[in-house]
Amino acid sequence: MMRAFNMRGPAFSLSLAALLLSGCNMAPKYVRPTAPVAEQWPTGAAYPAPDQDAKAGLTWQQLINNPKLQQVITQMLANNRDLRAAVANVVAARAQYRADRAGIFPTIGATASGSRTGGSSAANAISGYNAVNIGISSFEIDLWGRLRNQASAGFETYLSTQSGMRSTKLSLVQETALAYVTLASDEDLLAIAKDTATSAKRSLDLTQSLLDAGLGNAVDVETARTVLATAQSDMASATTQVAQDRNALDLLVGGHVDEALLPTSLSDVDGSIALVPAGLSSQVLLQRPDVVEAEHTLKGANFSIGAARAAFFPTISLTATGGFASTALAHLFQSGSKGWTVQPTASLPLIGGTRFADLAKARATRDANVAQYEKAVQTAFRDVSDALARRGTIDDQRAAQSRLVGAAQKSLTLSDAQYQAGTLAYINVLTAQRTLYSSRQSQVAATLADLSNRLSLYTAIGADETL
């Protein structure tokens, strides 16, 4: 029965000593760049009063209070192809890091070989030779930290990819919810166009009957036709847009969205999307996935400088083997010769090579990553500032738009009554119809802007701990 090979020999001792010597790290000390933005959010007439007690950010489950939309987002998180690709990239980056890290440690392998020789005469009897070797194959002693810095850079790449996946999730939640409310708004616009077409048809019938009775004029009839034709054209356009909205939602979700989960009006979702608190300090931006992604990329570049620096020092490799040899396979581990070999080698390029160029490239890459990290922070700050500027005025706009719709509706009712009584020209009715139609469309746009702003603020802050 084969017995275990005893690794307590010179080869094992030398490899252990090499591991203990691996303590030098030539990577520069990492210092996070100072965020090139103000410490607090902007203030002024366009901005809401800061909430000093609220913690910045919400989870998407806290953001979305509509059960149907929650189901749609859950379906998206399970099936969206962009998200699947992002997850696959994380798995690939993690595997690459494990491969890079494996180079730090010695690879112990076993080999077995045998041979047979013989002839036809007694003097050339069949003879055999068998050998088993276990050892370390070309293990680099990482005295200067080159391999460890390369592995650390790979780890930061993995973390960067993971943050990129979180950023993708964050954006997809926003895009899916925005596609949902956009569909709801276009359903409203279609309904408004239908209502206007119905009202315009009644006006056209009235003006035509007055013309037929000799009490009206052809100008009023043709003017009524323009309102009806405009509404009918908008109906066709809105019908197309609703169909395209559904297609866009299906693409985001990664499959067909059940009809029962779709909204029929903005009233289905208005009030079910929460207002995301921004807090007081802009430091919350350092948690945003794209900012975290940029910082991990910067850290990886920092480790790459360490690897490039280490390339200026000698590379020391070790090959060690030990094993048994015997002319009898059955007694390979009980008899025969035993032996071990150790072959250390060292190399250092003296002239030529790309070491200086590699180091210059690593430093330049690090400097570029610093700029990209700072730009990511600045972009995040602007995203939040823009969303807050919209947040501070949207309630006033919606209230004014509601008053406008009410006044336009009342104006149309009065104008229509006076026209039928013969005390007002039809042009006043036409103007009232157009004003109401436009104001109702603007009211839908204001509601959509409000809901879109809430979703934008959610993404801009990016502090969703569930992603």
Describe it.
By secondary structure, the protein is α+β, with helices and mostly antiparallel strands. It contains nine helices and four strands, in the order ααααββαααββαα. It has helices at residues 10-21, 60-63, 67-79, 81-102, 146-212, 218-253, 289-310, 355-420, 426-461, and strands spanning 108-117, 127-141, 315-326, 337-347. Strands 1-2-3-4 form a four-stranded antiparallel sheet, with helices on one face. α6 (218-253) runs parallel beside α9. It starts with 9 loop residues before the first helix and ends in a 6-residue tail after the last helix.
| Cα separation of the termini | 55 Å
N to C succession of SSEs: HHHHEEHHHEEHH
| Spatial shape | elongated
User: What helical percentage do the residues reach?
Assistant: 55-70%
Question: Major beta sheet, specifics?
Answer: 4 strands, antiparallel
Give the spatial strand order of the biggest sheet. 1-2-3-4
Please give the count of helices. Answer: 9
Give the mean pLDDT: 82
* Low-confidence region ranges: 1-22
Number of DSSP strands?
4
